Predict the 3D structure of the following.
Amino acid sequence: MTPRIEVVGIDCLMVRLFERIEEANMPWVLAASQRLQAAFGAHLRDLVPSYTTLMVHFDLPPADARCLIVQALEGLQPGTENTGCLHEIPVWYHASVGPELPVLARRAGLSEAEVVRLHSERDYPVFALGFAPGFAFMGLVDERLATPRLSTPRKQVAAGSVGIAERQTAAYPAASPGGWNLIGRTPVRLFDRERDGYSLLQPGDRVRFVSVTRQAFLALGGDEEAQE
């Protein structure tokens, strides 16, 4: 693998490791992230991993930064151990909080229970954070659950809403507009300014969604507020 370095700003370079989104990319992205953090040290302002890239924000002359990146990634190999955390996130899967659950089931020729099983039976790596603070892009969902974003996004999606877009899945950390297909809701607080790092989920972590009853959802502090 030969990383490609792209200019995105006067103090920002993008390291492109892959062209396609694959779960197998993550060990490489994390290994590259660790090497770059060590290489740049105090000169690193920010490092943003994504599905196939790493954005490096630095306070060095661009030519020096480029040289550091090349040196740091020479002979790169993926890590053999998963250093991220595994999070079990409870979800109440129901049409009242996940209005696309029955729609997605009909489209895929599945029952709603089968959709829930397929969505909750695997661990999802966290590829990247973006769109909103604490919003974690995860994947890849079973191909039978893949579905395009809504043609008209909602004006307001409730915090904790769990959705699918193409083969990605995510949970909204806060109320916001959004166009993902909603299939349930979690009571877990995904973004908290009092938490170290703010976001519960970080790139390299894994998430297992756990189906819970409405009673358990409410007992854990869940909100049944309808979507707009």
